[in-house]
């Protein structure tokens, strides 16, 4: 069995710095997604819809649907910051910060890619692409 590693102050400092950088990147992605949503909303008519179909159902998504991704990610960003400050199973706070920030960065990247695909679909439906 290995013994738990003792972390130095430098390790903790580097972990905290990385978390702060990642949180800034996450915030930048949310702002980018808001810019995409606003650009599409002012570029296409409000009545523009995009058809979304799954196995046996289909739905018409309105332009306002573009606001869903940034709003949900902003909520996750705020809750991520709140979760970090609470205690959890003996894991040091800086490790929780690093882990949650890493997961959130992946989630935000996926949502941003989805936002770009939706923006392209709405622009095509609006006749602008």
- The domain tally reads 1
Largest sheet: 2 strands, antiparallel
- The percent range for helix content is 55-70%
Return residue spans where pLDDT drops below 50 for at least 5 consecutive residues.
none
Helical run tally: 3
Distance between the termini: 61 Å
- Category from helices, strands and their pairing: mainly alpha
Radius of gyration: 20 Å
- Beta-strand content bin: 5-15%
| Spatial order of strands in the largest sheet | 1-2
What's the order of the H and E elements?
HEEHH
Count every beta strand, where a strand is a DSSP E run of 2 or more residues. Answer: 2
Shape: elongated
Mean residue pLDDT: 80
Fold and architecture overview:
The protein is mainly alpha-helical. The chain is elongated. It contains three helices and two strands. The mean pLDDT is 80. The longest helix is centred in the first third of the chain and has 35 residues, at 9-43. Strands 1-2 form a two-stranded antiparallel ribbon. Helix 1 (9-43) runs antiparallel to helix 2, helix 1 (9-43) packs parallel to helix 3 (93-125) and helix 2 (68-85) packs antiparallel against helix 3. The termini are far apart.
